[in-house]
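Training component of the fellowship. As part of building independent skills, the fellow (R.M.) carried out the full modelling exercise for a liganded target. The chosen ligand was nickel (II) ion. The inputs are recorded below so that the supervisory panel can assess the work.
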Amino acid sequence: MTIKPIITLPDPVLRQVSKPVERVDDDLRRLLDDMLETMYDAPGIGLAGIQIGVPLRIVTIDVSPHEKDDGEDGAEAKEPKREPLFLINPKIVSLGDEPSIYEEGCLSIPDYYAEVERPASVTVSYLDRDGHEQLLQADGILSTCLQHEIDHLDGKLFIDLLSRLKRDMVIKKFTKLAKQSGKPTGDTRRMVG
Ligand code: NI
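Fellow's submitted model of the complex:
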C-alpha cells in the first residue's frame, strides 16, 4: 500500500466533480487500500478520491478510532479497532430533519476547524469493495463524515457551509501559505475528513 500526497486548498482540483466508477476491479481495490492507508497516516477519518487527485466517486471512512470504547464497567480500555468503510458511487438517499453540529476539519484544509451544522442522520446507498449494493443508515459523527466526503465528490468543501466572510478568510490564508503542509491534530470532538 502506498501513502499518497493529499491535495490542499486552494488547488482547483478540489473543485472538480468526480465521475462514477464503472467497474469494481482489483485496480480500484488497490486504489481504495492506498486511500485508506493515506487516511490513517494523515490522520483523518474520511478521505475522498479527489483529495489524492483521483476524480472518481470513491470514499474511505473509519470513524472507530475517534469513538470511545463502550466496554462493560471495569473492563480495561481497549485499543481502538480499525473498522474501515469503502464506499463506491455513494449517494445520499435521505437526510434526517434534526440538525447536529460538529467541529469539522478537512485533510485538504490543514489545521483549520469550524463548527458546521448538517442533518444529524443520513441514509446512503453505495457499492462496497466487492461491488455489492449496500444501504447504510448513520447518525452521529458517521453521518457528518458521510455528508462531508460525498460533498468532496461534488467539488464542495465544508468551508462552503460557513459564512462568506469566514470562507474568504480561509481561502486567503491558504492561498498565502499554499506551500504549507501541516497536519491536523487529533481530537475526539473533531471530524477530519
Ligand atoms: Ni474533507
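The panel noted the following from the submitted structure. The chain has one domain: 12-66+86-181. The first strand starts at residue 46 and ends at 48.
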